[in-house]
Amino acid sequence: MDKEKNTFERIYEAVKRIPKGQVATYGQIAALAGNRRWARVVGYALHANPDSEHIPCYRVVTKDGNVSQAFAFGGANRQVELLMAEGVTFLDGRVDMEKHQWDTPWL
DNA sequence: CAGTTGACGGCCC
DNA sequence: GGGGCCGCCAACT
Asked: Which of the four, A10, A58, A93, A104, has the lowest number of CB atoms within 10 Å?
């Protein structure tokens, strides 16, 4: 199989590793992918979203706990609904990062 | 082929 | 404390 994974694939892999009921920031995903400077690339990768059915891009939020406007891949409000269904709490429309930011011990 | 943009993050003023 | 600018890699035009 592919020994060398493309940057995108690494990002998708990191996103798919986000546990249920938790969220991660772009920078965090970038760090998991290998480099935290890929924050923009992460955003672009999720924007491409070739597997939205398996890539929980809705679990990826900005460091402010706010989701991007462009998240309207099927309804921005949909994103909140999905996260709440997993037990994620919100504060004024923002994800409670203090409680649900993905805790990555390997970082 | 080269230039610009992009679903961001972090640092500087 | 708040606002603005730059930096990073990759993809798109």
From this structure: A93
